[in-house]
Amino acid sequence: MTNSSVCAHNCRNICAILVEALSHESELAKLYTDAVLVCDDPETNKFLIELKDSRDGIVEKIMQKLNEMRARAEIDDSINLTM
């Protein structure tokens, strides 16, 4: 999915922000996962897993929103082609 295919509407900057946020949130989730692998404290591991799960949820929400925006743009393009 490219920015241009997702952002064929008036909120181009929002798409770019969401794509960047997706990258950052994914990196944080991986960071927490890597930290769990090197930490041997159960309480800290539990905390890190909670942080990772939270980031995974955010990643999922951002991906869902970007997919919705792409689908809406495709529908709008179809409507504009038929007019």
Topology of helices and strands:
Blueprint: H1 3-6, H2 12-38, H3 42-82
Helix pairs in contact: 2-3
How is the main sheet built? none
Extended strand count:
0
Bin the helical content: over 70%
Describe the global form: rod-shaped
- N- and C-termini, Cα separation: 26 Å
Number of helices: 3
Low-confidence stretches: 1-5
How large is the radius of gyration?
17 Å
Work out the strand percent: under 5%
- Give the overall pLDDT as a whole number: 86
Element-by-element helix/strand order: HHH
Q: Helix/strand-derived class? A: mainly alpha
Describe the structure in your own words:
- Mean pLDDT is 86; it is low at 1-5.
- This protein has a domain at 29-75.
- It has helices spanning 3-6, 12-38, 42-82.
- It has three helices and no strands.
- It is rod-shaped and about 65 Å long.
- The longest helix is centred in the C-terminal third of the chain and has 41 residues, at 42-82.
- It starts with a helix and ends with a helix.
- α2 packs antiparallel against α3.
- The protein is an all-alpha fold and 83 residues long.
Summary tags:
83 residues; mainly alpha; 87% helix; rod-shaped
Task: Report a brief summary of the structure.
The protein contains 3 helices and no strands. The protein has helices at 3-6, 12-38, 42-82.
